[in-house]
Amino acid sequence: MFKAQFIARFKTMLTYKFTVLSGGITQIIFAFFKIFILTVFIKNNINSSPMNIAESVTYIWLTQIFFALIPWNVNWEDMNLFVSGNIVYEMARPGSLLGLLYSRTLSWRLANTIMRAIPLLAFNLAVLPVFGFSNYMIVAGTKWHVMLFVLSLSVSFFLSSMITVFLYSLALHLTNASNFFGVINSVAMVLSGTVIPLSFFPEWGQWILRIQPFKGVIDTPAMILIGAYSYEECFAFILLQLMWTCCLWGINYLLFRNGEKRMVVQGG
């Protein structure tokens, strides 16, 4: 059943072509805007900058290419199930509610990300060199860093979806969980490295930024691709991604089990 839900949701997301196109254009413009600002900052502080220009350019492109992977929002089609009370129909299906929502969220994140990533990657690799913007292209590390990047990015999909499902679990315990989403929006954007790379934050806070779960969504894969980590560090951060995914699964399991027992749906 979960496989069928996954495939159905994936096909549904593939129909929103115009939205993806307009979003891609916006992200390209925003990527150049951030690149130009960060480039000026690095040139004026070369010795104290934690990343060089090529690494920063690659990092920014990755945050835009995989923007849909960042858990700053929820799928309101699923969230409205809790608001309207239609969640009882989903609870009547065989299998767990947590597994059902997780498979839907995973397909939603995956479809959105693929549809946004392909045109942006094509623009980066095919268009930029033609117009003489080779200095603003993605630059990867060794082939082993590329392989570890793919592995880390794959884990990121599971981690990001699990964070999103955590927001759904709050809807089982809060009268209006949407009030909490604005906070998560800001937290996810900042702590994932989407606003600025996490390595540009003050040194005294780096240890906290390295162990928090949002780093594993995009910062970890990006830092692996640019070759900022040794192979040992790459495996350590991928393991941390897996640990957070498993930890959030346990938290969501407890919240869903408790919330389903206490759920009261009014109306008829």
So what's the overall shape?
A: globular
Total of helices: 11
Could you give the distance between the termini?
27 Å
Query: Quick one: biggest sheet?
Result: none
Order of helices and strands: HHHHHHHHHHH
Keywords:
single chain, 268 residues, mainly alpha, globular
How would you describe the overall organization of this protein?
- The protein is an all-alpha fold and 268 residues long.
- It has one domain.
- Helix content is 71%, strand content 0%.
- It is built from eleven helices and no strands.
- It has helices at 2-13, 17-44, 53-65, 76-84, 87-91, 97-130, 143-171, 178-191, 206-211, 219-225, 231-262.
- Helix 1 runs parallel beside helix 6, helix 6 (97-130) packs across helix 7 and helix 7 (143-171) runs antiparallel to helix 10.
Question: Topology of this structure?
Answer:
Elements: H1 2-13, H2 17-44, H3 53-65, H4 76-84, H5 87-91, H6 97-130, H7 143-171, H8 178-191, H9 206-211, H10 219-225, H11 231-262
Condensed summary:
This protein is mainly alpha-helical and 268 residues long.
